[in-house]
Amino acid sequence: MAQNFRYQQLEAWLLRGIEEQRWREGERLPSIRTLCREHAVSKATVQHALQRLEARGLVEARAKAGHFVSPRGVAARQPLSRARIEAPRPVTAGDLLLDIMGRGAAFDLLPDHHGGDLPAGIVALNRSIGRALRRQSGDDFQYYDTPAGDTGLREQLALHLSRRGARLEPDQLCITSGCQHALFLALMACCERGDVVAVESPGFYGVMQLIEQLDLQVVEIPTSSESGMDIDALTEVLQRWKVRACVVSPAFATPSGASMTDAAKQHLLELAQKHDLAVIEDDIYADTAFGPVPDPLKSFDSDNRVILCSSFSKNLSRDLRLGWISGARWHGRILHLKLVTQLASSRYLQQGVAEFIADGGFAAHLRRLRNDLQGRRDRLLALLHTWPGDVRVSVPQGGLAAWVELPDTVDTLAVYPQALEQGIVITPGPLFCVSGQFKNCLRISFAHPWDDARVAALGRLPDLLLK
Amino acid sequence: MAQNFRYQQLEAWLLRGIEEQRWREGERLPSIRTLCREHAVSKATVQHALQRLEARGLVEARAKAGHFVSPRGVAARQPLSRARIEAPRPVTAGDLLLDIMGRGAAFDLLPDHHGGDLPAGIVALNRSIGRALRRQSGDDFQYYDTPAGDTGLREQLALHLSRRGARLEPDQLCITSGCQHALFLALMACCERGDVVAVESPGFYGVMQLIEQLDLQVVEIPTSSESGMDIDALTEVLQRWKVRACVVSPAFATPSGASMTDAAKQHLLELAQKHDLAVIEDDIYADTAFGPVPDPLKSFDSDNRVILCSSFSKNLSRDLRLGWISGARWHGRILHLKLVTQLASSRYLQQGVAEFIADGGFAAHLRRLRNDLQGRRDRLLALLHTWPGDVRVSVPQGGLAAWVELPDTVDTLAVYPQALEQGIVITPGPLFCVSGQFKNCLRISFAHPWDDARVAALGRLPDLLLK
């Protein structure tokens, strides 16, 4: 949702306040007069914004009393389901996950519906890559890049991370073929067959798949859709079982978009030190932050045990296939594994991206992306608000998806094939754990611009899910 | 060596005849008159060519009798050393290999000396990739490619392979990040920890590295620099030990450039069937063939057990990082491993390469490349011929390197650091096995155009090696 008009800007500001519980369920919003004054807008503009929030069911107008946050407001309906703690176990991927991942792994409601305009940032990125290609000379093409990757790109990444408190030298970074590849190298470097790995539940299916392929075991840590991994639950698990590594996404974790507080991050690192854990930080969503970009776990890593993994797939382009890893005490082994399994990454591609960052194109792209994503999230939450019954939705402050909890009677796995018949791909909750929980949940992406086809597809879901 | 002058063309033709033993050691070459007539050149041209071969020590002029192949001609000095058969063992990579691979893995004498002009084929390839980038539209960039890769590229590859007798559907191919990545997926798919893998000796160090990382064991099969893997030795090994897989490069195997006969390929597949082996075919050098491109093992694979692995790194550009795999009965598992460890490959890159092939750009590039490589090999052999003492050299009919066997007293590992002090990177023979053999051997690349710096670097080696 573009916020070009003043009423849209005000609407978004009010919505954020509701989501962030500045005004809680049942509380009164600032008066029209106050809003006019503080935002320097006309009365008509304020009324327009309030009407739109009313239409979305987020606000109630009470005669002569003002506007109040609706008791069914989104922010009051955070998902409640929590994972159970169960003993470590091996992972067996279901056919369903493979089926969905085989459909492009984009987890889009309409995977064949490529719409919208190519963003200016991607056009600039492609020009930069084109320039790097044209700069190839002599027999450059006969040489592999070094396993760690292009120095220029690693310098840009180090600079980018330093703004978030993570002081890394370019030598502490290695370029990968995306974040999944980085997670693979991380797990391969710090675990041996049979080791137990703690993961978020609900959490990223790609990690569970890696754990299966590497013959590791998984223990699921309950994770809140507001504050991420439950550190008390992790404490309990660490007391009961020997755990080798913990994979965690402190910033806008998929599927819920939850973020950990800095205090929780520090607590996690204390536990890691006490129990000698490798901490694998999936940082892939951090740059989509609607507000300030949170500091990574890596910025608190005084003990050299946080392996930072990320990529450009969520904040720039999934088709770049470029990620990075900072491997802490395991970095040497990770470099070796990169070399042995893949030799190198494409040099011209890295040079093109490095130039794009150095030229400021990446920062400009991120500004637009964050604004677009926040608008798309708002639209999703508004659309979900029209669903009947007890529907709970996470209110992520970054990332690309919301986590939706439906009544207990709903079985999203059973709905999957029915939705597919209508050309709609849903992402059922059980994909985000190995224990079959969350069958009444699903993740819905807001990565794509909302157009008629996408709104219509989402509009068909209540009939499918809640019939 | 450019072959722009008639005497150069004739010289190269005669050299090939000697290498291919059309005229054996001590035999008489065609008379000057015959050469004039059959090649439609002047007597002066023929004399010029013969003088050059004489200067290189390949031909002897005998008064009133004509020109004879020198008893010290290159073709008569194929390397003789053979690997010993030893029991299966785990692999431990030496620091030296890591050091050399860390230097760009190009195994170039002068890794920092990027010379020559960008070939027309690479310019055309880069234009094609640029066009594919500019064709990106809408939110294409938000989608991952399917794990198997772009259909258009797989169709082109299937067509390319069908010309060599390997009838594959595009569905039987999966795109990878290079051949090393393909070999990794192949070994991961068909082996379990502790399994024994048979490899060529001398053979490709990258495979030994993978075997180490996957906790497999290796058994080395003696390999001739003329005819490749010794099938009798393989037979003996299979009788003595349980072997799970065999990695073999039937076409221009590194380091020697040897090729297996079709009969040997068929024999190998009979053994594979009898002993239930997975056969992993490293096909990466096939397209560099100076003569007809040999049929791959895969074209004889009636039993669906040959996993074909290859890439564009040796026949187009190392910086593309694009390879492919056809996984036979393991293909489903390979697709899954690609998905889990890397999700996808870059779509626009694959589309650019597919268009380059479809437009005929790749075929034109291969024609030029083969001609260039053959000239560079001739030049290398001529330069090596000036080395004193009993120096034996393979005469590859394709590939990018020759295998040089020096007197037993030479220790190439000891020379490595001394050469490095002079800015020269040599590739010592022991890198090509796990048993410490071949210390008096080294591989020398002819991938790069010969210029003064490169000739001078090679010229310094006899002093270093043979002092």
From TrEMBL, chains A, B:
What Gene3D superfamilies does the annotation carry?
Answer: Aspartate Aminotransferase, domain 1, Type I PLP-dependent aspartate aminotransferase-like (Major domain), Winged helix-like DNA-binding domain superfamily/Winged helix DNA-binding domain
| PANTHER family, sorted | HTH-TYPE TRANSCRIPTIONAL REGULATORY PROTEIN GABR, TRANSCRIPTIONAL REGULATORY PROTEIN
- Species, as recorded: Microbulbifer marinus
Q: What is this protein called?
A: Transcriptional regulator, GntR family
Regions crossing the membrane: none
Matching entries from Pfam families are given as: Aminotran_1_2, GntR
- Domain HTH gntR-type per the UniProt entry, residue ranges: 4-72
Recall the GO molecular function terms of this protein's record. DNA binding; DNA-binding transcription factor activity; pyridoxal phosphate binding
Q: Which UniProt keyword terms apply here?
A: DNA-binding, Pyridoxal phosphate, Transcription, Transcription regulation
